[in-house]
């Protein structure tokens, strides 16, 4: 029973972890030389949801993450919903056709997805503000952002893997739990 | 069609139905009629209620650490040459750290106070606790909100000039759209030639003056002040200085780059103007 509660608490706890990460992200990168190292933790979380969650659950979590991003930014209404959902659907689509057997494969994908997300954000915002003003900013932060997000994804994915295992969200942990419940039902 | 058959269809096309909603929701969320960020809803306030105390604590811890480190480095050489005074130094170090921080804060607050008195404004002092979640936008969060009398569209300034305007609030915090933000627009006047224009965000550290005609008299180094139009900012507050002027051989406008008066990389305390005189402020000397 305790394990089922843990499994149920996986998503709310993960959202709390993301909120905490966003709080750090918005506070410690104040100095101008640190701004290039500012990662997008929500993007990493969205990629994780696309890879490790079912379609409906992952999509809903992505929408919640987009909501968190929107209220911590002056971004135009809906831009985060559109861009993060596009990332989620793209990664989900890719994961149906390609296998990411190792962590480093997923990390490489985060690098590309980071560039993809920035291009999407540029496309959306340029319909509201001058394209020239925005592309300079995007270009400036494109590579540092991708590298930092790739590096953070390496640890982030390891953490979330462990977190999923502890909260019985991981398929193997879930299978072990089901086997155990089955054995209990059988009277062992 | 019976309900059983309907359910069967829903189950069969479950994926496509969910996909449809996942595409529809962001499309509905995008507000094409306005460039502005949206207001807080009740659940947004809950989320901000969770993150803002964490942001306050992290900012405080970071400030304390940086301050302590700076002072420790400052005193390091002295300590080496004064071994006998080591113990006393250690005792005094904590006091010095606190005093230096207080002194620095005092200096900044004194300048803010002098600014406030010069302009005859009702203001609230606030501390910057967080920045925008992405590098694409440049909002900041401050530790004063509705309970301190802060409302939407109130101007935010420092003794150096305009920071931005409040665009949404919670009970304890407020989000400020800075003059460097892509969605910001401040009506300005070139102080020397009285040419008008609008300042919009451009990159991480410079803004752009829009609607400057080729024939307009604008030179690098010109001071730009708020015009007071729109009723958000008081007239005569410094916004920035012209850092670059480019006139193309064709076209009706010129490109004017502006360095903001406020150093956003060192922004710690700000003033939120809760009320200012409707008549133009006579001072235009905050340079």
Overview of the molecule:
The complex is a heterodimer of chains A (188) and B (287). Chain A has 188 residues and is an all-alpha fold. Chain A has one domain (2-25, 40-186). Chain A contains seven helices and no strands. Chain A has helices at residues 2-25, 41-52, 55-70, 79-97, 103-125, 131-166, 171-185. The longest helix of chain A is centred in the last third of the chain and has 36 residues, at 131-166. Chain A is elongated. The two termini of chain A are 17 Å apart. The model of chain A has no long low-confidence stretch (mean pLDDT 84). Chain B has helices at 3-12, 14-29, 42-81, 86-119; strands at 122-131, 139-142, 155-157, 162-169, 174-178, 185-190, 196-201, 207-210, 223-226, 238-246, 255-260, 269-275. The longest helix of chain B is centred in the N-terminal third of the chain and has 40 residues, at 42-81. Mean pLDDT of chain B is 82; it is low at 282-287. The chains are: A mainly alpha (188), B alpha+beta (287). Chains A and B meet through helix 1, helix 3, helix 4, helix 5 and helix 6 of A and helix 2, helix 3 and strand 1 of B.
Q: How would you describe this structure in keywords?
A:
heterodimer; A: 188 residues; mainly alpha; 7 helices; B: alpha+beta; Thrombin, subunit H; 6-stranded antiparallel β-barrel; 12 strands; globular
Topology record:
The complex is a heterodimer of chains A (188) and B (287).
Chain A: H1 2-25, H2 41-52, H3 55-70, H4 79-97, H5 103-125, H6 131-166, H7 171-185
Chain B: H1 3-12, H2 14-29, H3 42-81, H4 86-119, E1 122-131, E2 139-142, E3 155-157, E4 162-169, E5 174-178, E6 185-190, E7 196-201, E8 207-210, E9 223-226, E10 238-246, E11 255-260, E12 269-275
Antiparallel strand pairs in B: 1-2, 1-12, 2-5, 3-4, 3-12, 4-5, 6-7, 6-9, 7-8, 8-11, 9-10, 10-11
Helix pairs in contact in B: 3-4
Q: Can you describe this structure in just a few lines?
A:
The complex is a heterodimer of chains A (188) and B (287). Chain A has 188 residues and is mostly helical. Chain A is 77% helix and 0% strand.
């Amino acid at each position: 029973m305790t394990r089922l509660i843990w499994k149920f608490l996986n998503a709310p706890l993960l959202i709390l972890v993301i909120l905490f990460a966003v709080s750090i992200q918005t506070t410690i990168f104040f100095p101008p030389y640190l701004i290039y190292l500012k990662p997008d933790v929500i993007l990493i979380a969205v990629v994780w949801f696309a890879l490790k969650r079912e379609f409906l659950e992952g999509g809903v979590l992505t929408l919640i993450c987009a909501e968190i991003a929107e209220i911590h930014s002056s971004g135009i209404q809906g831009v985060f919903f559109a861009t993060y959902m596009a990332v989620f659907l793209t990664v989900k689509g890719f994961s149906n056709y390609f296998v990411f057997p190792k962590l480093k494969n997923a990390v490489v994908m985060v690098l590309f997805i980071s560039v993809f997300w920035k291009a999407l954000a540029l496309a959306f915002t340029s319909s509201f503000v001058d394209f020239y003003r925005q592309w300079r900013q995007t270009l400036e932060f494109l590579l540092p952002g991708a590298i930092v997000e790739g590096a953070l994804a390496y640890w982030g994915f390891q953490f979330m893997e462990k977190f999923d295992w502890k909260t019985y969200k991981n398929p193997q942990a879930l299978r072990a739990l089901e086997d155990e419940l089955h054995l209990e039902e059988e009277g062992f | 069609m019976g309900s059983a058959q309907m359910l069967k269809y829903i189950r069969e096309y479950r994926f496509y139905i969910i996909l449809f909603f996942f595409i529809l929701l962001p499309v509905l969320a995008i507000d094409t009629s306005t460039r502005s960020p949206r207001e807080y809803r009740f659940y947004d306030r809950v989320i901000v209620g969770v993150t803002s105390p964490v942001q306050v604590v992290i900012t405080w811890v970071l400030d304390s650490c940086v301050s302590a480190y700076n002072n420790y480095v400052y005193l390091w050489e002295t300590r080496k040459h004064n071994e006998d005074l080591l113990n006393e130094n250690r005792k005094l170090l904590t006091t010095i750290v606190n005093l230096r921080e207080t002194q620095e804060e005092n200096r900044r607050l004194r300048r803010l106070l002098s600014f406030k008195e010069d302009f005859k404004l009702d203001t609230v002092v606030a501390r910057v606790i967080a920045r925008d979640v992405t590098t694409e936008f440049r909002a900041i969060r401050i530790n004063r909100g509705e309970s301190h009398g802060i409302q939407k569209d109130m101007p935010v300034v420092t003794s150096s000039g305009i920071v931005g305007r409040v665009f949404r609030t919670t009970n304890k915090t407020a989000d400020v759209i800075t003059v460097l933000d892509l969605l910001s627009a401040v009506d300005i006047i070139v102080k020397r030639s009285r040419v008008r224009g609008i300042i919009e965000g451009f990159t991480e550290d410079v803004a752009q003056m829009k609607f400057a005609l080729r024939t307009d008299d604008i030179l690098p180094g010109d001071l730009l002040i708020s015009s007071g139009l729109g009723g958000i900012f008081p007239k005569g507050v410094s916004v920035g200085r012209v850092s670059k002027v480019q006139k193309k051989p064709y076209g009706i406008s010129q490109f004017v780059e502006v360095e903001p008066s406020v150093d956003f990389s060192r922004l710690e305390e700000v003033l939120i103007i809760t009320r200012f005189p409707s008549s133009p402020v006579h001072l235009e000397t905050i340079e």
